[in-house]
Specification:
The chain is of the alpha/beta class. The chain folds into 4 domains: about 160 residues, Molybdenum Cofactor Biosythetic Enzyme, Chain A, CATH 3.40.980; about 60 residues, Alpha-Beta Complex (Molybdopterin biosynthesis moea protein, domain 2); about 90 residues, Molybdopterin biosynthesis moea protein, domain 3 (Molybdopterin biosynthesis moeA protein, domain 3); about 70 residues, MoeA, C-terminal, domain IV (Beta-clip, Beta Barrel), CATH 2.40.340. About 15% of the residues lie in helices and about 30% in strands. It contains 6 helices and 26 strands. Helix 1 crosses helix 6. The two termini are about 25 Å apart. The structure holds ligand LQZAQKY5 and molybdate ion. The site of ligand LQZAQKY5 has 26 residues, from helix 3 and helix 6. One of its GO terms (biological process) is Mo-molybdopterin cofactor biosynthetic process.
């Protein structure tokens, strides 16, 4: 049996990022930029007003003999339009937020600091002296033509989409999404819309994995369930040949019908199987032809947990991410973990912030068949190898499943 760290390192070493494609900007959410984004113009593109008010020359805002200066209003510049004349000494123009500053003006005073005769008024009194540049957002203040704005490798979130839209990137070069073939195995496993029969259980793993794959930004394809025969598995694997990753569940342990490993040796190679962890000991990794295959255990909780620990980082690496792993923090375990495991134990828990600390409560019975132990889980507590008991109030490391992956 190898350690979790060694397994992860060996799996990731066998994975390379997928090719680059160009996608429409809205579809780039969650993907990784494949080229540097360099501004091809200044942003803002022109000097513009930060306030609704009046554009004027700052000299004209100075008091005269204790009186506020009174200027002639020569027109209005609305956002989206350009003034058709310049500001001359002693004049001002009404200006709206976002409108280009007219030539001749070097400052803007907000409307609240003026007195005027209404929207059509041809005069305005300036009630406060304003400095040059006041309320003017200069061209290029945000981004300069030629400036590197987002380096390749950046993850595209909603805010990056906003920046790219600002620069007019209607389509974006990204590392493409991974296609993932998902295969259940086992004669006992039936489809979820079938009535239960003696000895049978529903194929929950394929659905859980499909959702988890989609949440990781990849494209899942469920191939159904292979019977416990070499022929059935061969037939299913032949459908997965164009995938970027094959995920199986079940059939990787030592039972008489655990045949996934046999097919891996027949059609590719097994790099390893069995990891010193609970749940999830019989994880297998290798290839079918050139396609990497991650064989997850059949027990549903084992399959869910090992997907988070190995499958998700694989998908992130395939999709060009450099931050692969969820952050770990120290938490205080309110209820403790009494179940002893000789393997490293990943205990499902809910972590909350309370009185200045992270506090965890486990989700109850931790058997690898207890689906309900996955509910209300937002963290995996790491109980070290060797049968360690965690007493109530003890501190352990927790992997925060809902937090974004770390720089690592
Ligand atoms: N003699 C040994 N037996 C077992 C060992 C061992 O070391 N020696 N390891 C146990 C552990 S730990 C695990 S985990 C399981 C993993 O076995 P497999 O990955 O080969 O999975 P199966 O035997 O096919 O199934 C295990 C369990 O999961 C249920 N299952 C399978 N597929 C699905 C599915 N798609 N949806 C829902 N549930 C599924 C299946 O019915 C079994 O109950 O092996 C132990 N045995
Ligand atoms: O590794 Mo198994 O996943 O303990 O149930």
């Amino acid at each position: 049996m190898i350690s979790v760290e060694e397994a992860l390192a060996r799996i990731l070493a066998a994975i390379a990022p997928l090719p680059t494609v160009r996608v429409p900007l809205p579809e780039a959410l969650g993907l990784v930029l494949a080229e540097d984004v360099i501004a091809r113009e200044d942003i803002p593109p022109f000097d513009n007003s930060a306030m609704d008010g009046f554009a004027l020359r700052s000299q004209d805002s100075k008091e005269r003999q204790g009186q506020p200066p009174r200027l002639k209003v020569t027109g209005t510049v609305a956002a989206g339009y350009v003034a058709d004349h310049a500001i001359e000494p002693g004049t001002a123009m009404r200006i709206m937020t976002g409108a280009p500053v007219p030539p001749g003006a070097d400052t803007v005073i907000q409307v609240e600091l003026t007195r005027h005769g209404g929207p059509e008024s041809d005069w305005v009194e300036i009630l406060q002296e304003v400095k040059p540049g006041n309320n003017i957002r200069p061209a290029g203040e945000d981004m300069r033509h030629g400036q590197l704005i987002l380096p390749r490798g950046s993850e595209i979130g909603a805010w990056e989409i906003g920046v790219l839209a600002t620069l007019g990137w209607a389509s974006v070069p990204v590392t493409r999404r991974a296609r993932v073939a998902i295969l259940g195995t086992g004669d006992e496993v039936i489809e979820i819309d079938q009535p239960l029969q003696p000895g049978k259980i529903r194929n929950s793993n394929s659905y859980l994995l499909e959702a988890a794959v989609r949440r990781a930004g990849a494209i899942p394809e469920r191939l159904g369930v292979a019977r416990d025969t070499v022929e059935s598995l061969r037939e299913k694997f032949s459908q997965a040949i164009n995938a970027d990753l094959i995920l199986t569940s079940g059939g990787v342990s030592v039972g008489d019908f655990d045949l996934v490993k046999n097919i891996m040796s027949e059609q590719g190679e097994i790099q390893f199987w069995r990891i010193n962890m609970r749940p999830g000991k019989p994880v297998a990794f290798g290839h079918i032809g050139a396609v990497p295959l991650l064989g997850l255990p059949g027990n549903p909780v084992s399959s869910a947990v090992t997907f988070e620990l190995f499958g998700r980082p694989v998908l992130r690496k395939l999709q060009g991410h450099t931050h692969l792993l969820k952050p770990q923090i120290e938490v205080k375990v309110e209820d403790g973990v009494q179940e002893r495991a000789m393997r490293r134990h990943y205990v499902r828990a809910y972590v909350r912030w309370q009185d200045g600390k992270f506090v965890a409560r486990t989700t109850g019975h931790q058997g690898s068949h207890i689906m309900t132990s996955l509910l209300q889980t937002n963290a995996l507590l790491i109980v070290p190898e060797g049968g360690v008991v965690v007493q109530p109030g003890d501190t352990v490391q927790a992997i925060m499943l809902d937090w974004p992956e770390n720089a690592s």
